[in-house]
Write a structure and sequence with these properties.
about 150 residues; mainly alpha; Recoverin, domain 1; two-stranded antiparallel ribbon; PBP_GOBP_sf; PBP/GOBP; secreted
């Protein structure tokens, strides 16, 4: 019986520590990463030059190319997965992590969580990423810009 309790206790500690450290290995991305990801996603999706110029100015028109570009970028930043959706903790780490400790109970985290809401049933992954991304950028634009400068 003692062995079972020890094994169970170890399993609980392992699972909870794994869950807790899941985001701790996230590496805050740099401006160089942003540029590299932008090139990779624009090449993959054949994004026209005039759209790329808009993206560089934080303008994201509501079209299919832009929606999938946003999904690609969020996947490269490790913020989004088409099955799981947005990873609020990683987004928050990216925004605040470069500037100090992250408090996942603060207002920024709440704003991110609202934008990263569950996938609407009538949308595909690109549209889901776009909807969350536009909300996210509108709520935290200065943080987004400063996190990759």
């Amino acid at each position: 019986m003692k062995t079972v309790i020890v094994i169970l206790a170890f399993a609980i500690v392992t699972v909870s520590s794994h869950h807790h450290h899941e985001h701790d290995d996230y590496v805050v991305k740099t401006r160089d990463d942003l540029i590299k990801f932008r090139d990779e996603c624009s090449n993959k999706l054949n994004v026209p030059a005039e759209l790329l110029e808009k993206y560089k100015k934080w303008q994201y028109p509501e079209d299919d190319v832009t929606k999938c570009y946003m999904q690609c970028m969020f996947e490269k930043f490790e913020f989004f997965d088409e099955k799981q959706g947005f990873d609020v903790h990683k987004i928050h780490l990216q925004l605040v992590g470069a500037h100090g400790p992250v408090d996942h109970s603060d207002e920024t985290h709440e704003k991110i969580a609202k934008c990263a809401a569950k996938k609407p049933e009538d949308t595909n992954a690109c549209a889901w990423a776009y909807r969350g991304g536009v909300c996210f950028i509108n709520s935290n634009l200065q943080l987004v810009k400063s996190s990759v400068n």
